[in-house]
Amino acid sequence: MTVEATGSVKVVPDGVQFNFSVFAVEATSSSALERANKLASQAREALDDSKINKDDIATQSVSIYPEYSYAQDGAQTLIGFRATQIFAVTLRDTTSAGEEKSRALRRIA
């Protein structure tokens, strides 16, 4: 027996989610992490100023790893360390989601 079906559902969204990241490349891993933390704090302040609930802002990941430049001959040179924090933000007011996201991201940049 083979059964095939197709269905669709239309609903009004109750939230909009977007992701963004902040990063810093510095000479040492600790200075890269410190700078990324400062940028993350500024991002959280901008989101707070945009009236986004703190419970709707989640850190997805924090990473730090060496950053290299590569020459044509294949040689690599350590240029520093990259620290990155990735966030997921949920906007509950779907009618102004584009405006809120744009306003918050402009403040972060």
What does this structure look like?
By secondary structure, the chain is an alpha+beta fold. It has one domain (27-108): Alpha-Beta Plaits (2-Layer Sandwich). It has two helices and three strands; from the N terminus they run E-H-E-E-H. A hairpin with a 5-residue loop joins strand 2 and strand 3 (76-91). Helix 1 runs antiparallel to helix 2 (97-108). It is flat, with a radius of gyration of 20 Å. The termini are far apart. The model has no long low-confidence stretch (mean pLDDT 85).
How do the helices and strands line up, and which of them pair or pack?
Layout: E1 16-26, H1 29-49, E2 57-70, E3 76-91, H2 97-108
Helix pairs in contact: 1-2
Give a short overview.
This protein is of the alpha+beta class and 109 residues long. It has helices at residues 29-49, 97-108; strands at residues 16-26, 57-70, 76-91. The chain has one domain (27-108): Alpha-Beta Plaits (2-Layer Sandwich), CATH 3.30.70.2970.
Largest sheet, if any? Answer: 3 strands, antiparallel
Whole-number total of structural domains: 1
Counting DSSP E segments of at least 2 residues, the number of strands comes to 3
Helix and strand composition category: alpha+beta
Radius of gyration from the CA trace? 20 Å
- Overall pLDDT confidence: 85
β-sheet strand percentage: 35-45%
> What is the highest CATH level, the class?
Alpha Beta
Net shape: flat
Spatial order of the strands forming the largest sheet? 1-3-2
